[in-house]
């Protein structure tokens, strides 16, 4: 399972397949990471710096994080893609495209404009498609090499 949790500043990614439940996160910041709740991560309950510090101590790297850089991610099922928009201008700065097949959603392309590379945007785009597929119980097949690496 892939999930992304966001506050104003940062995105926390969680990959359940890597988590071996060492509970470093729960010990480090129990207000935010509470496995008895759904969703189990509540980004509103601590400052970003503290969340970031806690995530950095995850021994399995099931938890990772990235600054948002005022870029938002939106999912469009009709267009079969997630898109990244920069700031108030809503300039599109990246996208992750998939196509539907009998076997699931096939991620075929992920791209971020050069001026926004290295900001974690591509990972947010891929996680958005994976999350939406998983919520619909649809398998994700990453053909795009970047998506395959992330997932
Ligand atoms: S610290 Fe990482 S490995 Fe441990 S429970 Fe949290 S997410 Fe899982």
List keywords for this structure.
151 residues; alpha+beta; Aminopeptidase; 2 domains; Alpha-Beta Plaits
Summarize the structure in words.
There is one protein chain. The chain has 151 residues and is of the alpha+beta class. 23% of the residues lie in helices and 34% in strands. The chain has a five-stranded mixed β-sheet with strand order 4-5-6-7-8. The chain has a three-stranded antiparallel β-sheet with strand order 1-2-3, sandwiched between helices. The protein is globular and about 40 Å long. The protein binds iron/sulfur cluster. The site of iron/sulfur cluster has 12 residues, from helix 1.
CATH topology of the largest domain: Aminopeptidase
How much of the sequence lies in strands comes to: 25-35%
User: CATH H-level name of the largest domain... which superfamily?
Assistant: Gcn5-related N-acetyltransferase (GNAT)
Helical fraction equals 10-25%
Mind sketching the topology for me?
Elements: E1 2-6, E2 10-15, H1 24-28, H2 48-56, E3 63-67, E4 71-76, E5 81-86, E6 91-101, E7 104-112, H3 121-135, E8 140-142, H4 145-150
Parallel strand pairs: 7-8
Antiparallel strand pairs: 1-2, 2-3, 4-5, 5-6, 6-7
This protein binds iron/sulfur cluster.
What's this, in brief?
This protein is α+β, with helices and mostly antiparallel strands. The protein contains four helices and eight strands.
